Amino acid sequence: MMFSPSFPLSRLRLAVQILTLFLTVWGGNLVGYYMADKLSQALPALSCAYDQQNGGYCILVSLQHQLDHRIGEALAKAHQVTWQILLPLFFTLLSFMAFFVVLGKAFCGWVCPLGTLQDWLNRLGRRFNRPQRELGSDRVGKVRAVKWLMLLGLVLALPLLTGLGVTPHALGNPYCDVCPSRIATTLLTGNPGELALNTGDGWRFALGAIANTLVGFILVASLASRQPFCRICPLLAFNALFQRLSLARLSKRQHDKCGQCGICAKACPMEISEIAREHGAKAFHEDCTLCGRCAEFCPEDGVIALKWGPLSLFRSSRDYYRERVRAELPDGTVKPVKFHKKPASPDA
Length: 348
Description:
Helix content is 50%, strand content 4%. It contains 15 helices and three strands. A hairpin with a 2-residue loop joins strand 2 and strand 3.
């Protein structure tokens, strides 16, 4: 597909976001509630299993359930056969890889419903002139570690320990219990049930309170900052483990002007400063969601490209950049629409 300022890459991304938001939030209505099971239990996007109308399940809920109910419990019982321990996990990961090899981390930047909501809320905040805030280079590095801690602790360690009987049963899928996508996407279906707190169990009450607080903070913060939750999302960390295996990737060739203007880094909603300095594989940082903004706002021809295997889907262009900034600045600031008054009639 050829992209031009009249049909920018961002417009295609918006169309994909709208389509996949309907699929991941309301898609189960097409053929019934159990479509999610039939389609997949391992999408590389936060498609929440708590949403009874969705069209696919997030890999993290399946992974937690396998660690808790299969692997942890199987390790606690010595008579379990090895295949009964490893085979369920193998097929869960195989389903994930079947999707991930095709689109890779573009699932984060183009498909994830929570990412889409944050993106749209930020646009709304800018339309109402909400002051925008960035973390800054000194704090970005510190925040990056949080997603790995959440992956190791909430997604992997606690479900496994629960299956082994070390931690309470309420901690069998702790990440899903605090995931803001669980509440945000179910609210989009008109179901407020996930906001309810379980007062009969201390652990579940605490996790529910954290979830409500987190989703409120994320929705409000999105009005004034770009992708606040994506920066700490454990699914982004999980996807980063396999990013080299995907056919979809970011490519950047060395250029003598790179590192001087820094426009691509300003365009990046994840504040990845490395994209302005590095080239080759190093430019494809673990936080990259393949949204394509760095390629859109690079003012040099052919320096940054979105590729699928050997094919270049989009390349940076000076002419494209010049037209693109007429409507939107690299940092996401939307220029106001100008209305021209019709000239008065001479006979008036």
